[in-house]
Amino acid sequence: MEAKPTVVVVPAKLDLEKEICTFLVQLSKKVLSTKERFNVAFSGGSLPSIVASFLADREDVEFSKWHVYFADERCCPLDHPDSNYLLVKAELLDRVKIPSSNVHAINPELVNDPEKAAADYQSVIEKELPLNDQGIPVFDCILLGIGPDGHTCSLFPNYPQVQETKKFVTHILDSPKPPPSRITLTLPVLNSASSVVFVISGSGKTETIDQIFHKPEEKKPASFVNPGPGKLFWLVDKSASAHIDYLAKPVSQYW
Ligand SMILES: O=C1O[C@H](COP(=O)(O)O)[C@@H](O)[C@H](O)[C@H]1O
């Protein structure tokens, strides 16, 4: 890992839910003080429930100006139990007032053709997001999880998607974690975001975090995520944090 991330360790999952809520409330306010919209990408898995837990009850967030995207998505109908969209909908979108036109899901008509679905999603983010000087779409915030194998988004260890340098969204047909067909943001986009936040809970992730932070030879995809100084955050609860406790800042100092 190059530039050092900001690492915040909190006692328990409940505190993690509170912390990511505080983080997003503040970041959204900051972004919306100078821009018309807050562009945020969600991962699936355990993340949406942690993120939405307290956030969905906040009345001081301008959700009408939020635009929601998906850091990765499974190639299935939007009402299928595997869908990351469905998960984010159940946890957050059904509980807050984000206009449906601000929610940028995978095109359900293309889920049987993952390559086309990825190209289509790339055209969506190129149209919706500001581009940096290299023409790469810039998210205000990307919310990430990690799998026990060190994958993030649908970038799996030793899979070619991790090496992608040209496309902003790519597809995978043989994901080692079901379902096999997915689309995913690529590292050039993750590393161009204004902020990237890993939100990690539980002892099942402790050894993975050790590999990501201390064992570059393991080449875990999450270890290649680094948008630059001051832009990378790891919010971790105590049970997941054994190997990075020493990097942690007190909560009050990181924001
Ligand atoms: O398959 C996926 O897994 C990762 C990690 O999920 P978790 O349940 O272990 O938190 C997730 O970040 C990704 O979006 C998802 O598609």
Quick overview:
The chain has 255 residues and is α/β, with parallel strands linked by helices.
Given helix and strand content, the structural type is alpha/beta
- Structurally, the number of domains stands at 1
| Radius of gyration of CA atoms, rounded to a whole number | 17 Å
CATH-level-2 architecture: 3-Layer(aba) Sandwich
Ligand types: ligand LXAUTJHC
CA(first)-CA(last) distance: 21 Å
Question: What's the CATH topology name?
Answer: Rossmann fold
Describe this structure in words.
By secondary structure, the chain is of the alpha/beta class. The protein has a single domain, classed as Rossmann fold. Helices cover 28% and strands 16% of the residues. The chain is built from seven helices and nine strands; from the N terminus they run βαβαββααβββαβαβα. The protein has helices at 13-32, 47-55, 84-93, 114-128, 187-190, 206-214, 251-254, and strands at 6-10, 38-42, 66-70, 72-74, 141-144, 169-172, 182-185, 196-200, 232-237. The strands form two sheets. A six-stranded parallel sheet has the order 1-9-8-5-2-3. Strands 4-7-6 form a three-stranded antiparallel sheet. The chain is globular. The two termini are 21 Å apart. The model has no long low-confidence stretch (mean pLDDT 95). Bound molecules: the ligand O=C1O[C@H](COP(=O)(O)O)[C@@H](O)[C@H](O)[C@H]1O. Ligand LXAUTJHC is lined by residues 43-47, 72, 84, 145, 147, 154, 177. The ligand O=C1O[C@H](COP(=O)(O)O)[C@@H](O)[C@H](O)[C@H]1O binds at residues 43-47, 72, 84, 145, 147, 154, 177.
